[in-house]
Every structure is written in structure tokens, then in C-alpha cells.
Amino acid sequence: MKQRIKFIFTTWFIAISLFTINAQDVQTNKNDMENLNLTNEWDKTFPQSDKVKHSKVTFRNRYGITLAADLYMPKNAESKLPAIAVCGPFGAVKEQASGLYAQIMAERGFLTIAFDPSFTGESGGAPRYVASPDINTEDFCAAVDFLSLRDDVDSERIGIIGICGWGGLAINAAAIDTRIKATVASTMYDMSRCTANGYFDENDNADARYEMRRQLNAQRTIDARNGSYETAGGVVDPLPQDAPQFVKDYHAYYKTSRGYHSRSLNSNNGWNKTSALSFLNAPILAYSDEIRSAVLLIHGEKAHSRYFSEDAFKKLKGDNKELMIVPGANHTDLYDRTDIIPFDKLESFFKGYLKKIEPDE
To answer: What is the pTM of this model?
Structure first.
């Protein structure tokens, strides 16, 4: 009986707290964003399209971090549009692969944004260059907030695209946010699994994880003493001759004119070393089997990371889930190879699951 009374009281208190927020508070929170230093020049790794309109926008997540995004809109759009938020790869910025995806999907009739995650690129948040399974999942949900409130967006037709490590986070966002009607994970990593188990699960044991925790927590002490955060380094450069092929593929993208960007973590000094700590204890795909909206997983046939998508697909349920393997493609081919990335499939997937619902349907 006492437990029931406690539950009722707690529920009542939360409800009263929510309803006593006045309009002035809401307005203050809405406008209380960081002043970000946004570049006005076209500094992408891909050419600007003459078929879409481009602009810079900002929005806040529920942790108060202001995010920066590039917005792409089809020219001559007249009615409310279906919308897509794009992010990734892990350690990249919106001027790289996510912006390319967003611009091409805008050419195909969607209003899109490519955003920098919290603590990276032009987005706000401190300390810099830290990743979080919770906050970065929230970044996707905050993008849905932003799109839902736009007059030129149909709030019932919003999807997301996550690339590489943000593929797994996109699936995590779809598991928590029922407003997301369709999700694409392209060349995805499950960052929790990769961090905790190593590549191909070679270090999937308690001793290996304990040693990683010991090293990372020792680094925390060093960072606390120095008053700064040591970075792990981006993609290795110069490239060792005996580097695995997938490392060579990363180098060919992030460290050359093909994909290098001055704000990209992978192109430069990488994440904070201690960023990996939170992913050790937070399996991001724990509830992916409860996703009811549509999910499309796309992966390259020759990608070292292919097993992440294949195993994630096995857990998904329902007849609106699909796995597409792109013949001959490696992991980074799906970053920017427009001749290989199956944009026709992405277009048909989103148009199918983000179609306008007529009143009689």
C-alpha cells in the first residue's frame, strides 16, 4: 500500500511540475542557445548542388547543447515536405559524408539536415571531442524536435540516416523515439560492441575489458591533473606498410583531398582518449528488437564491419526491416562513392515509409 501511495504521489508531483512551466520559461529555454562560430563559406568535401537551397541552422538538445547543422531544401518546394536528419561517420563532420547524403536526398525531394554531434565540429558543448552513447542518441532526437517544429516539414514524415558509428546510434534513436518513422543505417558500427569486445569480438572477455577500464581510468587521473583532455589521435598518418586494409581505406578517405576536413576528428587529432569509457557499459542496441518503425541496413560486401549490420539485422523484428549488401563495396565506399551508394534504394525506402497519409487511409 505504501509503495502504491508513493507511486501516485510521485506521478502527481511530476505532472504538476510539468504543467507549472509558464510560457515565458519555454520561450527563454527555446532561445537560450550558445553563440556558435559558423562559417559562411562552402567548405564541404563535395561540390555544391544547384538543385537545392543551402543554409546554416542551429538547435538545442535536451542537455542544453547547441548543435550546428547544414539544411538542404529542394528548390521550388511548395508544400510541407518529408524530412531526414543525417549524422556520421563516427569522428567525421557534417561537411563530409553526412552532408553529401543530405544534399543528394534533398535533390530527391526531402528537406534534410546534416548536423555535427555534440562536442564536435561547429556544434557546442564542452569538453571538446568527447562521445557519449546517451547524448549522441539524444542529438538525433533533438534533430527530430527541430524538424517537427518547422512550418515546411510534415512532422508525421520524419526519418534519420546514420553513417558508420552513427548508424548504431540511429538505430538506438529509433528504439527510443516513436516520432522517427524510418531509419537508415549505412556501413554501420555498433560502437558499444566494438569498444567492449574489440574488432570481430577478439577481446570479448572480462580480463580484456578490465584492462581497458584500468588504462582509461588512469588516463582520467592524468587529464584531471593536467586540466586538459588528451586526444587519441585520428587516422594513423603516415600509413604503415603493414596496416590492415580497412585502415588503408580510412586513410584514403580522411587523410587525402578526397575526404580531409580541418574540423574532422578522424582527419586530425581524434577523440578524447577517455571517450571510450561510456561505451563499455552501455550496449546501444539493447532494445532494437522493439523498434516498430521501418529500418534499412546498408553495408558493403567487402567491408570489415559488415558483421555489425548482419548481426543487428538478426535482432530486428517485423516485415518493415531490410538488409541490403552492396556488391564489391568496402566500408568507406559508402561514405562518398555516389556510383556505389544505393541512393535509388534510399529514395524508394523513405518515400515508401514517409509517404503522406490521406484522411481515408
So the answer is: 0.91
